[in-house]
Each structure stands twice: as C-alpha cells, then as structure tokens.
Write a structure and sequence with these properties.
By secondary structure, this protein is an alpha+beta fold. The chain has a domain of about 50 residues. The protein contains three helices and three strands; from the N terminus they run αααβββ. It has a three-stranded antiparallel beta sheet with strand order 1-2-3, with no helix packed on it. The longest helix is centred in the middle third of the chain and has 37 residues.
Length: about 100
C-alpha cells in the first residue's frame, strides 16, 4: 500500500475532520519529538568534538578544508554508542559504518 493510499484510508476512517486533525497533530508531535531528541544528541556529540579538538566546528571546518590540520584519522572517527562511524566532518553525508567498536 502506497503512502497516498494509506493517507486516503486514514481520511476515510475519520468522518470528523477535527478528529483526524487531532490524530495527525499527535503523530507529527511524536515525529518532531524524535527529531528534537536526535538533534540534542548531535549537539552533545558536537560539543564533545569541539572540546576534544579545542575549537568551534566552524573554525575546524575552515582549517580542515584549507589543509591546515592534516589527515589524521581522529578527525574522521565519530563514536556513537557501541558503533563507530567513519565520517567526513565537512560532508556528513559521506559516511561509512564499520563493525569495529
């Protein structure tokens, strides 16, 4: 079943538009809370990263991008829980999970 089909089914299940609005508002609040928690965790990890390297992220990104900091692997390893993630600090979308912990 596609997303549109699911939404149509949900719409058809609630004759009262106000009730459907409350259900959707609650669902969106749950999703937003998940994002807020994730953002708080990322901010905490970022503060740890900044403390570890003694500089703000913007300064780190500028210096790293200019080649002033070298290619030390410490700049690429981010630990989250029991997983390690190799990640480019300038382009977080460039990441590779590894099984080492």
């Amino acid at each position: 079943m596609s997303v549109i089909e699911k939404l149509d089914l949900l719409k058809d299940s609630y004759a009262d538009e106000a009730e459907l609005d409350r259900v959707l508002a609650r669902l969106l609040e749950v999703v937003l809370n998940q994002h807020r928690l994730r953002l708080a965790r990322y901010e905490q990890e970022l503060r740890g990263f900044e403390a570890r390297f003694g500089m703000a992220s913007t300064a780190f990104a500028a210096r790293f991008g200019a080649g002033e900091l070298g290619d030390d692997l410490d700049y690429f390893i981010i630990c989250t829980g029991s997983q390690r993630q190799t990640s480019c600090p300038l382009k977080p979308s460039h990441s590779v999970r590894c099984s080492q912990s």
